[in-house]
Amino acid sequence: MARALAQVERAPDSRETLDLLNRAYDEPKAHVIGITGPPGVGKSTLTNALIAKWRSLGRSVGVIAVDPSSRRTGGALLGDRTRFTTDPEDQGVYVRSMAARDRLGGLAGLTVSGMVLMRAIYDVVLIETVGVGQSETDIVGVADTVLFCVQPGSGDSLQFIKAGIVEIPHIVAITKADMGAPARRAMADMKGALNLAGRTGNDPWDIPVLLLSSMHKQGIEELIAAFDQHVSFLQDNALLMSARHIQAKQWLIEAVREKFGRVGMQHVVEQLEITPTDSPFERLYDISQTFEKAWS
Amino acid sequence: MARALAQVERAPDSRETLDLLNRAYDEPKAHVIGITGPPGVGKSTLTNALIAKWRSLGRSVGVIAVDPSSRRTGGALLGDRTRFTTDPEDQGVYVRSMAARDRLGGLAGLTVSGMVLMRAIYDVVLIETVGVGQSETDIVGVADTVLFCVQPGSGDSLQFIKAGIVEIPHIVAITKADMGAPARRAMADMKGALNLAGRTGNDPWDIPVLLLSSMHKQGIEELIAAFDQHVSFLQDNALLMSARHIQAKQWLIEAVREKFGRVGMQHVVEQLEITPTDSPFERLYDISQTFEKAWS
After folding, report:
1. CA distance A161 to B172
2. Interface contacts (A, B; CB < 8 Å)
3. What's the pLDDT tens digit per position in A112-134?
4. Torsion angle, alpha carbons of A35, B131, A157, A68, to 10
5. Is the pTM of this model over 0.90?
6. Which residues pair with A66 in a beta bridge?
7. Taking CB atoms and an 8 Å limit, are B267 and A105 in contact across chains?
8. N or C of chain B: less Cβ packing under 10 Å?
9. Rounded to an integer, what distance in angstroms lies between the CA atom of residue A202 and that of residue A237?
10. Per-residue pLDDT tens digits for A35-77
């Protein structure tokens, strides 16, 4: 995985990288889970608890820790890499920090490539992002299942509705449940918020709201069960493929816009349509060839 | 002004619009002032007080109210247009709301065109923006003088340093000075913050920190005097032309990136250099022609 990611970083536009990404794109294996929520809510602690649990169940895990502070510098903070306490000898876990966003405001290109590579190798891919501004909506573009975390007493449930984030998650978790009454109140608030937004009681996916205490490892099994239920729900309703197809289409549009601009995009509008089995990486390569020919 | 702006909106890429913008670009008249600061700090009230004072001094004023909430919808909120209480019969004031940002994260194209048009007509152009995320840095790209507003008791001075905003303003105002002691404390905090960042005591521009009470019209004359001193400082040091030249270069780069992408920009890198007298609008048109020829 380290070698593959280094290859993508070193020569993102090369034929070799493209072949690697196409191969990975054609053989998705993992359930891709996005975790988002405000800073300080305990996402790293939760990620650690989830990794430990998945490993004990014999599932391999790839983690992408999206670093929100790296927009300016372009690189990920070293601190992020050491935030997780995984066994360096364990081949079944791979953790990688990545810059939050490229300078045009999209999820950094490497996040999508990294997800696709990890998706072909591990049983679970976890993408952890900090809920600041657009990151909640970005995560929808790369994850099959989105978990939104809030903590008790934060008034997050109101913010949750006001910012329109309520539309995004498939599962909501109240962290720091060891706080007792405030956690139960937060859970009631959040259920109220989801209800107001018409997101509960839906058939067949009724958004679960779970209480978690990563410190005491409470609720982790229930959370993993909820992840498994959601991916089953997606598969049973033929939604997994179609959601990934929509993600691939969206990624292609953003990538073409970033490389060739708004006007450039209009010139290849018919090339932007891809089928569920088309690799968006291959299509971006084709479009790049079209442009190179025009300019040569 | 309304007709000119409608023209730019209706046909942004036409030769007619281009001629209009070039003419305006060649004859700058106004001092362009940007006002930024957190929501609720009293920027609209201050803008109203400034307009009234400038009009009483016989100066004409163009106002661009940048609407932060319109990123999603693309249009400005109607509420913004009615936030200002100007005499509809007064030909010496023109207020226009504009969307905060285009979808790629830059200041919306119309903001720059609008500023250039207003700059050729009025004595003062005021651009009011809400300090959320990047807007503080955006304002540097269009204003000669940036005023940053904070209110007492907000802890804004710490945020001010942490977010790197401290580098941006030329003048700082503490609003709601009628609060008395908290306002004086906020002023001391802010002076401390500016001092820590090495931004006070500089020769020849020592950032003034002013106390304002828009409600009681206190400090407005001092603020206008500070604006006038800053534009004199820029002119005396030949900085006005050079700062505007840098703004034009930056705008051209952003506009080319938005229209033709990162890869497209590499193809016209030598066309991105402009002299202080070149119109960036004309240059963008030339670059567009280059692309159209390549694709035809």
Report:
1. 34
2. 46
3. 999 999 999 999 999 998 665 56
4. 10
5. no
6. A98
7. no
8. C
9. 14
10. 988 878 888 899 999 999 999 999 999 999 887 654 433 334 4
